[in-house]
Write a structure and sequence with these properties.
The protein is built from 6 helices and 19 strands. It is mainly β. Strands 1, 2, 3, 4, 5, 6, 7, 8, 9, 10, 11, 14 and 15 form a 13-stranded mixed sheet that branches. Strands 16-17-18-19 form a 4-stranded antiparallel sheet. Strand 12 and strand 13 form a beta hairpin. It comes from Chlamydomonas leiostraca. GO terms for molecular function: carbohydrate binding; hydrolase activity, hydrolyzing O-glycosyl compounds. InterPro entries: Carb-bd_dom_fam9.
């Protein structure tokens, strides 16, 4: 294959958000009161395929907070026609208008959570072992809600059930009432998320988790005779609006999800108070909600702390380009390549990756590359806390540490892993294969 003009990273860095530490738990009423007033709003949602697509018809923003108990997510959605029909837990909620949360704690593209809620508060929770593109499966039996019968622990495995609240400014399923939108609050306990986090839960200040949010929106009209909202036109494709762009109508591409960075700045601190001095102190409603419930901070930082981009992003982008090129080759010829050039991909520039390699068998492949020195130095604050990469020297062994380099890998199932390996001539600056 001829080498293309691909440059890494192929896509821009995903969006990031700095989550303040809640001094007190939010009241969980859907109105984003209390400590939420000190948290910045995210950037407005965009079309799932990116900023070049038409802007959403209605605005959506989110906030995040955390404490030693839970990760808190708050959202506000402008909506003149709030409607929802599904009332059973674990129904396919996106058949209604909904709000969705996706979380991959360790950023390896596998073992992640999905939560969905509609304007009636109906909840769908599931767990993905792998994305659907890699065979899943989606575990619909995964539960974040309270068990139906008492158990010896809070939940069947000792986790605390999720808390959620929905508030509608107006009325659900009533086209004769003026409505302005709906708010969502969700408390996701660390005892629940740590089941597959593979890192410290709760996180340490400075840690970053991968996360994204989606809003599914259908066009409806009010049927005055039947007194219900109905989808109009009946045959339509839903709109998908997201916080961080997915570049395709595909939420299950975890490599493009955004980042939440956990801050040790508390919501009752002077730094947080200064940032929210212009925010209203009373409960906002409707169109005033987004402006009154908290400040917009460019970046999106909070409490005087800026979001720090992931120094591994260019290398991650390279590895995922290899993954997708290998999938295309397998679909066409039922084989995997063992070089970048065979895939039509250029060698990465030294600031992106060093010593890139592709190895394949009849049914699998592994592509890997070394993190450049500048990114290696910045990586210390992004490494998963509470876990030591395989092959790394002890924390007290400076000599061993100086001989170790970070190498990242992707396999045929799209899983990205990171390892500390001993520096050798093959891990130098020259790209390989």
């Amino acid at each position: 294959m001829a080498t293309t003009k691909t440059h890494y990273p192929v896509k821009p860095h995903p969006r990031g958000y700095v989550a303040l530490k809640a001094s007190n738990p939010p009241p969980m009423n859907g109105k984003l009161e209390g400590p939420w007033l000190h948290a910045p709003w995210s950037q407005p949602f965009m079309d799932i395929e990116g900023p070049d697509k038409p802007a959403p018809r209605h605005a959506t923003r989110v906030k995040m907070l955390w404490d030693e108990r839970a990760l808190y997510v708050g959202a506000w959605m402008d909506e003149p026609q709030p409607w929802a029909h599904l009332t059973l837990h674990d129904d396919v909620i996106y058949q209604d208008n909904d709000f969705e949360i996706f979380i991959d704690p360790d950023g390896d593209n596998h073992m992640y959570y999905e939560f969905e809620v509609n304007a009636l508060g109906t909840w769908w929770d599931l767990f993905l072992v792998r994305p659907y593109r890699d065979g899943g499966p989606a575990l619909h039996s995964f539960e974040s809600v309270a068990p139906s019968e008492p158990t010896v622990a809070t939940g069947p495995t000792g986790w605390e059930p999720v808390q959620r609240a929905v508030w509608v400014d107006g009325a659900v399923n009533d086209g004769e009432v003026v409505s302005r939108g709906w708010g969502v609050e969700v408390a996701l306990p660390w005892s629940l998320l740590r089941q597959a986090a593979q890192r410290d839960s709760p996180p340490k200040p400075g840690d970053q988790w991968r996360i994204n949010f989606s809003r599914v929106q259908w066009r409806v009209r009010w049927d005055a005779a039947a007194r219900v909202y109905v989808k109009h036109p009946p045959a339509q494709s839903e709109a998908n609006w997201v916080w961080s762009p997915q570049w395709a109508v595909a939420m299950h591409q975890p490599e493009y999800w955004g980042y939440v960075q956990f801050s040790d700045v508390r919501t009752d601190s002077a730094a947080a108070s200064c940032a929210s001095a212009a925010a209203a102190t009373s409960s906002p409603t409707g169109a005033d909600f987004a402006s009154a419930a908290g400040p917009e901070v460019a970046g999106v930082g909070a409490g005087g702390q800026a979001f720090t981009p992931d120094p591994t992003w260019p290398l991650r982008s390279l590895l995922m380009e290899v993954y997708y090129a290998q999938k295309r080759l397998w679909d066409a010829e039922q084989r995997y390549a063992d070089s970048l050039s065979e895939l039509g991909l250029p060698e990465p520039e030294p600031h992106v990756a060093l010593a890139a390699r592709v190895q394949s068998t009849e049914v699998s492949f592994v592509a890997s590359a070394q993190l450049p020195a500048e990114a290696e130095a910045a990586q210390a604050v992004h490494e998963p806390s509470g876990a030591q990469a395989a092959g790394a020297g002890s924390s007290g062994d400076a000599a061993a540490s100086s001989e170790m380099v970070t190498r990242m890998y992707v396999n045929e199932e799209g899983r990205i892993t990171t390892r500390k390996v001993k520096a050798t001539p093959s891990h130098g600056t020259a790209a390989q294969r």
